[in-house]
Amino acid sequence: MNSNQLDSGNATNVPFLIALTNCSHLNRLWLHHNKLSGALPHAIGIFSTNLSMLSSQNKIQGNIPPPIGNLSGLTLLHLSENIINGNVP
Predict the structure, then answer these.
(1) Can you give the pTM of this predicted structure?
(2) What is the CATH number assigned to the segment(s) 14-84?
(3) Using CA atoms, how far apart are residues 15 and 36, in angstroms rounded to an integer?
C-alpha cells in the first residue's frame, strides 16, 4: 500500500493498524510514502511474529512502543522521514 497518499483526513490515522492485527499470516506491511500521521499504537506488538514493516516517508510521530519487542521475527523496521523520537525498545 505504498505511494498511495493514504490519509483519513484526521490528525491521527495510524490506528487503522490495530485492525490488521487479526491478520495472523501478515508478513509484509509496506506503507511508505503516504500521509499517515499519529503515534504507532501499542497493539503493534501483537502483529504476526514474522512481520517485516516499512513505514518511511509519513508523518508518524512519537516513540516506538515497547511492545514492538514482541515481534521476535521482525526483519525490517524502516521509519526514516517520520517524526520519531526516543530510544528503540
Answers:
(1) 0.72
(2) 3.80.10.10
(3) 10
